[in-house]
Amino acid sequence: MDFPYIKQLCELSKKGDLESIRRLLDKHRKDFDEGQIKEAMERALFVASEFGHLEIVQFFVNYGVNVTIRDGDGVNN
């Protein structure tokens, strides 16, 4: 099962809303395993990076999200 809040997490990353990202993850963290959450955060990391939200990128990096992942075109943002 995927983390069902991926779309919401990506939208918040696009907006640069770190506080809402923290609330979303805190609220639902206990319902999902760490792998599901990190996978969702990897996707949101691309969005935050694309829109220049460095504080959010740093938050994901500090959480331990894989920063060497590549998108479908082989691009590492």
Automatic annotation (TrEMBL):
Domain of life: Eukaryota
InterPro entries to which the protein is assigned, alphabetical: Ankyrin_rpt, Ankyrin_rpt-contain_sf
Keyword Translocase annotated: no
Repeat region (ANK), residues: 40-72
Coiled coil: none
A Pfam family per the record: Ank
Protein's UniProt name: ANK_REP_REGION domain-containing protein
Keywords from the named record: ANK repeat
PROSITE patterns named among the record's database cross-references: ANK_REPEAT
